[in-house]
Amino acid sequence: MSDFDPSRRRLLGLGLAGLGALGAGPLLSACASSAGTGSTPTGGGITLQSNLTGAAKSGLEKLVADFNKLGKGTATLNTVATEIYRTQLPTYLSSANPPDLYTWYSGSVANAYSRKNLLLDVSDVWQGLGEYTPAMRNVSTDETGKQIFVPMNNYWWGFFYRKSNFAKWGVQPPKTWAEFLTLCQTLKSKGIPPIGIGLGDTPWVASAWFDYLNIRVNGAPFHRELLAGKQRFDDPKVKAVFAKWSEALPYFDPKGKAYPFQEATTALLAGKTGMFLIGTFLADATAKDVVEDLDFFQFPIIDPAVPVAEEAPTDGLFASAKTANPAATKALLTYAASVEAQEAYVANSSGIILPAHPKAKASDMPLVAKGKAMLAGAAELTQFFNRDSSDALQPTADTALTRFIDKPDQIDAILAEWQKNAEKVFKG
């Protein structure tokens, strides 16, 4: 399961600004109504509400079909557009007759729902997951100590590019920030917009830039404290992040502010941009032969003294505390956590993800091996802006970061306003 979605995600974690203004209200209500009806218990019937599309959806369909053959319950998969899903998730969970299970992710967002007693306690499921790493257990545990999430996979972010294009342009992946800027200069001189970006209906993509620059300049501990409200967005350390970002701004695709990340992906694959900081979910809707031409490089090192951290969002499933069929719900969660289920999921999806179970085999694609090695070599792992903070804080980032890209000379006012908006979120 990739976000952001989305799978963001990140297709998982996608949000669509101004959705209500586009007349989506009735559609949202219809989705919630459909989900509620689908969760009515009939012979162990349960509903798995999902935002996964493309190859990721195929992988989940395989998982559900295999589970249904076990005779431990009958699961129905209900897929909702990611842009709608994220907006409606609180409504799903708080409704009188909610869907039983959900594709989403671990971390602070899951903890926030658990704090409101909306998530099923699955600690008994975890009693049978002794092979999982302590790190995976930790990201699945809420602040009271109970497990409320079952991880299925994680993935990585990086600068993706087409190998054939880099070869055609005669350029090499950089390792340092200076080398990165030189690469950008070279591509721009060849008439290629160096850096793709998709901010149209997916402004959260800009958060990857903020996350990476902050963990490269100030380190992961400061980044987590900032997103938890223990540091300030108007701190000089944060302003230093934007000073670095300003060095790369001249190389962003100017068209990228008008279209979403999906179109930015299309531009990258078509050779209309040079590279794109994005998660592996870009492969979900990419032809297999094109995937084989994809490669990535690590976000460049800026300060060698700062321990290297990488973004590695963990995706999986949680369940409604109000499920009418807890036995069948936990049976599906148990199956989803198995080696068999995760290997089948990977094989039937794009394959460019890492199964959460330590004994489950990932794809043998060189791209996957490279991503796995990068994460294994990191001193620390972060999730993504809203995963390390909250869905409520994400819009404050969307506003601040898109404004910065448009008007970098207003950074002091932007950071002051961001701090003000963040305080409102932290104070509830």
From TrEMBL:
<dbReference type="InterPro" id="IPR006059">
    <property type="entry name" value="SBP"/>
</dbReference>
<dbReference type="Pfam" id="PF01547">
    <property type="entry name" value="SBP_bac_1"/>
</dbReference>
<dbReference type="InterPro" id="IPR006311">
    <property type="entry name" value="TAT_signal"/>
</dbReference>
<dbReference type="InterPro" id="IPR050490">
    <property type="entry name" value="Bact_solute-bd_prot1"/>
</dbReference>
<protein>
    <submittedName>
        <fullName>ABC transporter substrate-binding protein</fullName>
    </submittedName>
</protein>
